[in-house]
Amino acid sequence: MLKALIGRELLNNLMTFRFAAVLLITLLLVVVNTAVLIQDYEQRLESYNNAVKMHHQELRNSKTYSTAYLFVDRAPNPLSIFNVGLDKRLGNLTGIYHGFVPTLWDAQMHGTDNPFIAFFSSIDIVFVFEVILSLMGLIFAYDAIAGERERGTLRLVLAQPIRRGQILLAKYISAMACLLVPLILSLLFALLLLTRSIPLSTDDFLRIAGIVFTSFAYLSLFYLIGLLISVATRRTGTALMLAMFVWGFLILVYPNLIRATVNPSADVQERTKTAKNQIQQIVDEYERERKKFLENKSVIGDASQFIEAVSLYTDAHVDSVTLSPYLENMSLISEIPPDFEKYVPIAKKYYSFVEPLATNAADKAWLVQKQALDDIFVRQAVMDRALLKLSPVGIYDAATQAWAGTDLLGLRDFFDATRRYRRVVIDYLYATDAFSSREWFVADKGPVDWSTLPRFTFERRDVGTNAKRALPDLFLLLICNLVLFMGIVLIFIRSEV
Amino acid sequence: MNFLSPRLSDLQLITYNQQQKMIWHIAKRELYDNLNSLRFALATVLLLALMLTNAVVYLREHPARTQAYHNAAADAVKALEARSTSLYRLATEGPGGLHKIPSPLRFCAEGDEVFLPKHADGRNYIRDIANLTAVWRMGYPQETPSLHNIRPDFTTLDWAFIVSYVLSFVAILFTFDTISGELERGTLRLTLANSVPRHTVLIGKFLGAFISVNMPFAIAVLMNLLLISTSDAVQLNAGAWGRLGILYAIVILYASLFIALGLLISAAVRESGVSLVVLLLIWVSFVVFMPNTLASIGSRISVPIAYVEFWNQRIRLSDEARAAYQDKYGGSQTKPPVHVLGEYVSKEAEEHERYNEAYLKEQIMQGKRARAITRISPAAIVQRLFESFAGTGFERHLQFIENVQRYAREYREFVVDTDRADPASLHVVGIREGMSQKPVSPEAIPKFKDTLSLNRDFNTAATDLLLLVLFLVVLMSGAYLAFIRLEI
Questions:
Q1: Bridge partner list, A100
Q2: What is the pLDDT of residues B113-151, one digit of tens each?
Q3: How many angstroms away from the CA of B156 is the closest CA of chain A?
Q4: Cα(B448)–Cα(B405) distance, integer angstroms
């Protein structure tokens, strides 16, 4: 009996105009946007490759250790085509230096960053689905029960020995089977375009499978919302209006409303100030020790003469936004003075004393910084996300971002890697005795050999980690589905025909 | 023949009056139907909630914004007047920060205001060139606030959003069944069985839908304006109210456009269910997707280099200038003559500024291209129109940049003229020994004043307005044709 019901419903759904229209528009939107997004990705990849090449060249051109600035670039994530998340927005270029700990907020941007086009948000595949799938689900569901009730066919069906739950199940299964056609078909087209120009790994395909499954749960949730409305109302007209306004509210209004009304907490400034003071203290202490060393006449001699001879440039400041300390010491020697050799052993002593000090100060500041940055930047975003999850769009967006690895955690992985790389560089400097070497500050005996320096590599975390991050939201979606379905069955069983 | 003509005109008069009556009759019936419907209640609640949120958020944020502007502008003027101790300082240190005045109508359209820089800099921010102080130049700082922002993406709930997204959506929901619904119920046959011309029915239906769509919006707008105008924090002047009037007229045009579209599809499709699906798909493509997708296609035509690269190139440029100076004069013991030095520093500043402006122009070009292509979508047109009349967003920023460039010229002329007025001076701007040593009165220095001109806004908006009217006319005549040819 169930089979017969499903067959009838399937035929009913497939032969409608709305099915053809929805299929067409989904295909069109996904294909056009994928083509645009692939171009965009390729452009970003090219800019990334150029940047890597340039930074490598720059490093090889640095003649001394102290004036070298290492740059690390973040490659664009190919899955940003599905959900761009924070991939395009946050910085993708950060410096590595022993007197500075790179954070997400210090990063700069290579690639396009024109403020005059920042207004136009990039439309990724998940956004297309967010809008279209939800609309589709509601359009297919609003008259499922209410329509049959109006036409009187519901009575006929119920006259047969069928349980009411079975009718709902048949409707659900057949509608989902129909709705999956545009979803799967458009994704296949997108993948066809994608694999032609971007190489994807097995892990990537698994991630995409995760995104597809999440999309399915999202679609089903909206179908069930529509079904609930259809069961609860007696007329299709009312059901339709309710469904449309629910859609408008959940998709259009609520996500924007919640962001507008939630005020960025005022104590952020206070928090920034206290953290900055703490870090400033660490920096001040470093400066005190450094100056004390410079005043040590038995080692340095006359400090001002020394500074001039090695043309010492120092900087120690705390960035007021990102709270990062910048502790720089370098010799900008353009011309070697005649009595330079006299100062070489002193400079060696100075640098081998100061640079470990700067490294430690930066490390110490990082402990304070980590906490403060979480309070200043992250807490608000986490709260926003939590509130957004009251609408299915928020859950769907968060889950797909986690699958794609373009969420905050995915980006943090990268910055954790940059900090690990900083450690590697520092270890390398210690291992080669760089701080106390002549090449630290002067290149007259030949430039630094950078070839043995370990290169920075970053691998995205494996798909298991993505799954771990995405599963809570996915389960939330599935739970909503189940609860809604049970609610619908209950209402339908108790309703009069 | 002669005695017939008055009668004919009488007849025409009567039918004309009857027609008018009939139109109102149909409109009224339509209106009553709508007023009692669920959609009217839901639309009113939705629009009201959005408009009130808009007002509350605006009143919370705007005073701080204006305060910040006034503080920054006052500080800039103070700093400028502090430089009046010598003409040389004025010539090298420049006018300082030039700030953009925030528009009081930001609640109407926020546009890309968040992403745009709030000031331009006329100062001397490069290292000295071999013991010579460099001359000031205009710089256009780039703010990338999104670089620090990890909060989820969202659209501001300004009037532009409420109108282009929500009101158009509401208009579709009000009109999708006006003709197809009556066709299905069979009431259209009844109406047309009377001797009513079809266009009368169509006009009546249009009017009815128009009033019932505009009523919730008008209520919401009035509540919004009531809140804003009663607050002490914001004062709207006559100009601002005039602009609000223009904005309302645009809203009417835009709402009519979607009502006409609804009538057209409703008449062409005959089934309400199908008509809604078609309308929703058109709406989704034109309102939600097209502006962004087209803009990202359009912005790909010419892509300027990244700001980081621009910054590095500029550093290289000034390093080259410094090296060239070293090569030429670095070795010699005697200082080169004053006019050589003067020419050198002013040329360096000029080239630097030209470079800044060329980059800015490239960026603007990309912005313009991205926007031009989105004009296919009425939602994008309305967004632009709202921005131009609210004095926010891209076009407004272009005006600001023009103001800044005009002021920079004025400032330079002032320095040169003041120097010329002193016969004791050598008239070499940018070098201490070459300039007038007389003190300058702080009042005489021209101050930057950012202005907004409605004339210019009309100019930039004219094309968009015309396009909107064109769309409306096409859709109206489409609806007329579809309804006339409708078989019942």
A1: A97
A2: 888 888 999 888 766 666 678 888 898 888 776 777 788
A3: 7
A4: 10
Distance between CA atoms of residues A463 and A479, nearest Å: 23
User: Looking at beta carbons, which residues of chain A come within 8 Å of B115?
Assistant: 115-116, 118-119
Nearest-by-CA chain B residue for A397: B152
The DSSP code for B44 is H
> Are B147 and A86 within 8 A, CB to CB?
no
Is residue B359 within 8 Å of B271, Cβ to Cβ? no
**Distance set, CA A289 to CA A292, B240, B377 (Å):** 5, 60, 64
Q: Which residue has the tokens 């009251």?
A: A390
Q: Which helix (H) or strand (E) holds B365?
A: helix B338-373
Best residue in A53, A57, A120, A335 for a mutation probing chain B (most B CBs within 10 Å): A120
Q: Which helix (H) or strand (E) holds A246?
A: helix A236-247
Virtual torsion, Cα B18, B21, B23, B25, nearest 10 deg: -130
Residue B226 lies in a domain: yes
Taking an 8 Å cut-off on Cβ atoms, the answer to whether B277 and A25 are in contact is no
Residue B322 lies in a domain: no
pLDDT tens for residues B94-116?
Answer: 888 999 999 889 999 988 888 88
Rounded to 10 deg, the angle between the B38-82 and B198-230 helix axes is: 50
Facing A117 at nearest CB: one of B111, B177, B367: B367
- Contact: A119, B157; criterion CB under 8 Å: no
Angle at B13 between CA B9 and CA B18, to 5 degrees: 150
Residue B333 placed within a domain: no
Answer yes or no: do A21 and B281 touch at CB < 8 A. Answer: yes
- pLDDT tens for residues A230-262? 999 988 888 999 999 999 999 988 988 887 777
Nearest in space to B105 (alpha carbons), one of B222, B225, B252, B250: B225
Q: CA nearest B227: which of B238, B217, B236?
A: B236
CB contact under 8 A, A115 and B161: no
DSSP B219-274: HHHHHHHHHHHH-SS----HHHHHHHHHHHHHHHHHHHHHHHHHHHHHHHH--HHH
**pLDDT per position as a tens digit, A179-189:** 999 999 999 99
This prediction's pTM: 0.90
Read off the tokens for A1.
């009996």
DSSP A370-404: HHHHIIIIIHHHHHHHHHHTTSHHHHHHHHHHHHH
The strand order across the sheet containing B137-139 reads: B96-99, B119-123, B137-139
| From A105, A238, A241, residue closest to B148, measured CB to CB | A105
Q: Alpha-carbon dihedral of residues A62, A63, A64, A69, nearest 10 degrees?
A: 0
Token look-up 């004309």 returns B16
Show the tokens assigned to B334.
Answer: 């005697």
C-beta separation of B174 from B34 below 8 A: yes
Domain-located, residue B186: yes
Contact A436, A445 (CB under 8 A): no
| Closest-CA residue to A119 (of B276, B116, B441) | B116
A377·B280 Cβ contact <8 A: no
**Nearest residue in B to A247, CA atom:** B169
Beta carbons of B486 and B205 less than 8 angstroms apart: no
Task: Please tell me which of the candidates A18, A36, A253 has its beta carbon nearest to residue B293.
Answer: A36
Contact B293 A123 (CB under 8 A): yes
Distance CA A336, CA A332 (A): 10
Interface-testing mutation among A15, A19, A32, A119, with chain B (most B C-beta atoms within 10 A): A119
Minimum Cα–Cα distance from A39: chain B residue:
B300
Closest CB to A260 among B53, B291, B293: B53
Q: Is the pLDDT of residue B4 over 50?
A: no
Domain that holds residue B273: 21-126+155-299+360-484
- For chain A, the domains span 1-497
